[in-house]
Amino acid sequence: MMDDVHYNNAFYARVGGVSNAELNRLELELLFLLDFGVTVSSRVFESYCLHLEKEMLVNDTAHQKTEKALISNITVDDVKEISGENTESCSPPSTTGLT
């Protein structure tokens, strides 16, 4: 399908550790092996999109549960340590004026 952001073969060749000429030859060979049948019907595309969206929801829910479990185990001292606050120099809150 259409893609707004794409990279040229030179980029993929560099990432894959082959020359641009070699990648171009491999791409051409693949196209001939596929008989240039590289289109996808809208129904198949939609099916894959729905599957991916479901997987994202499942993984996002699992991620959120893990995140909540981790957060519930963090103490105030942990937060101060993470934020770089020196916990030893912190004084307790003032109680003057409270009844």
In short:
Helices cover 62% and strands 0% of the residues. The chain has helices at 9-16, 20-33, 42-72, 76-83.
Describe the structure.
It is elongated and about 60 Å long. It has 4 helices and no strands. By secondary structure, it is mainly α. The protein starts with 8 loop residues before the first helix and ends in a 16-residue tail after the last helix.
Structural class: mainly alpha
Share of residues in strands: under 5%
Average pLDDT confidence is: 79
Helix content: 55-70%
Low-pLDDT stretches are none
Biggest sheet layout: none
Number of strands: 0
Distance between the termini: 68 Å
The number of helical elements comes to: 4
Shape: elongated
Radius of gyration: 27 Å
> Element order, helices and strands?
HHHH
Protein name: Cyclin
Organism: Melia azedarach (Chinaberry tree)
Please tag this protein with its features.
99 residues; elongated; mainly alpha; 62% helix; 0% strand; Cyclin
